[in-house]
Amino acid sequence: MEYRELGSTGLKVSEISFGTWAIGGGWGQVNDEESFKALQRAMDAGVNFFDTADVYGDGHGEEVVGKATKGLEGKVHIATKFCRQGDIHDPNNYAEAAVRKYCEDSLRRLQREAIDLYQVHCPATQILRDGAVFEVLDKLQAEGKIRHYGVSVETVEEGLISLQYPNVKAIQFIYNIFRQKPEQELFPKAKQQGVGILVRLPLASGLLTGKFKEDTAFEADDHRNFNQNGESFNVGETFAGLPFRKGVKLSRQLAWIAEGRGSMTRAALRWILDNPHISCVIPGFKNTEQVEDNLAAADVPSFTVEERQRLAAFYEQEVRDHIRGPY
Question: Where's the NADP-dependent oxidoreductase domain (predicted)?
Answer without folding.
Answer: 15-315
